[in-house]
Amino acid sequence: MVILMKIEKINDNMLKVTISIDDLEERNIDLDTWSYNSPATQKLFVDMMELAEIQFGFCVSGSEICVEAAPDSDEGFVIIITKLDEDEEFESIEKYIKNRFKKADLKAKKKNSSICSSILIYCFNNFDDLCLLSQRLIRIYTGESTLYRLREAYYLLLTKNSWSVDNCNSFELILNEFGDKITNVSFYEGYLNEYAEKIIEYDAVETLYDYFC
Question: What is the model's pTM?
Answer without folding.
Answer: 0.49
